[in-house]
Each structure stands twice: as C-alpha cells, then as structure tokens.
TrEMBL record:
Gene3D superfamilies: VKOR domain (1.20.1440.130). Belongs to the VKOR family. It comes from the Bacteria. GO terms for cellular component: membrane. It comes from Rothia koreensis. It is found in: Membrane. It is a multi-pass membrane protein. The chain crosses the membrane at residues 59-77, 84-105, 111-133, 154-176. This is Vitamin K epoxide reductase. Its main location: membrane. The lineage of its organism: Bacteria, Bacillati, Actinomycetota, Actinomycetes, Micrococcales. Residues 2-136 form the Vitamin K epoxide reductase domain. GO terms for molecular function: oxidoreductase activity; quinone binding.
Length: 184
C-alpha cells in the first residue's frame, strides 16, 4: 500500500510541480488538466492557497510521497521499524491528510475550481492515511481494545470508500449546476 499510494502521489505531485513551473515560465500557460472552468488546475495553482508556505504546495507532496515510497521499499526489502517510527509515520500521514482536507475545502468552497491532479492526491492520501492507521491499530502501535484491533482494520477499504464518497458527494452537490451545464 505504501508503494502504490506513494508512487501515485509522487507522480501526481510531480505533474503539478511541472505545470506550476510552466506557469512561472509563461503566465498564460494552459495546464494539461485545464479542461473547462470547473476542472481547471491552472485556476487552482494561481491562488494563494496553492502556495500556503511561500512555495508551491506540490513540493511538499514530492518530498512526502518520496518518503512514503522509501518506507514501502524498505519494508518490502525486509526492514522492521520500531513503534516510535510507526507513530512518526502516523503523525505524518494524519498531518498530510489534514492539509489535504484543507486544500479540498479551499478548492471546493473558496476557489470554485477543481484540479484533477489534486483529486488524485486526495484519493491516495485518504487510502494511505486509513491503511497506515489501521495497520497501527492492528499491530498495537495505537493502543485499542483487542476486539477493536481485530475488527476495525477489516473495515479499512469501507472507510476509504465512505470518506471519498462524502468528499466527492459534497463536490457533486456543490457544483451540480456546473456539472449539468457541462453535460448539456
């Protein structure tokens, strides 16, 4: 899971960095994911929210997903990590998810445009965070009752799907009139 989500997140972040660099070079650049007024990465990446810390947000994604990929590769090679390390990973994916949800809120309710590459990141970050948390519950890194530790991780995919249905359901409701006009 770490390799898959890390790889997809890294590629989506790299595509966003490439597109952002093109905008730096040419202010009139039309991004590869500028489909219409609603699905428009260029609109999103030209907002202050796209550079929350003074540099393009996708740089954070490139670094973070490279770390996730590295951890996944290390586990695949047989590495075992201490409880403190898994807690650090947990903190990282939770903070990454909070940042991702904040960006989702900004694009959905403040910017009024959606970025396809960003949506890919929302999906993989949700799957990553839920699965890392469930792994940490199952292995006792996050202390819970034995019954919860045995039962809850089996519901991880259901939880991922439910979170994504809520996020994309809100988008659908929020932009329903835009979606109808695109279809007609």
């Amino acid at each position: 899971m770490l390799i898959v989500t890390g790889g997809i997140g890294f590629i989506a972040s790299a595509a966003l960095v490439f597109e952002r660099l093109q905008v730096f070079l040419d202010a009139g650049h039309k991004s590869s994911c500028d489909i219409n007024a609603l699905l428009n990465c260029g609109t999103v990446m030209r907002t202050p929210q796209a550079e929350l810390f003074g540099f393009p947000n996708p740089f954070i994604g490139i670094v973070a997903y490279a770390i996730v990929l590295t951890i996944g590769a290390a586990i695949l090679a047989g590495a075992r990590f201490a409880r403190w390390y898994w807690m650090s990973i947990e903190v990282g994916v939770v903070l990454g998810s909070l940042f991702t949800f904040w960006l989702w809120y900004q694009t959905t309710f403040q910017i009024d445009a959606l970025c396809l590459y960003c949506m890919v990141v929302w999906i993989v970050q949700t799957a990553l965070a839920v699965n890392v948390t469930m792994r940490n519950i199952r292995t006792g890194v996050i202390p819970v009752s034995p019954r919860v530790a045995e039962t809850l991780p089996a519901w991880s995919w259901f939880l991922v799907v439910m979170i994504l249905l809520v996020l994309f359901g809100i988008i659908f409701i929020r932009f329903f009139s835009n979606i109808l006009s695109m279809l007609s």
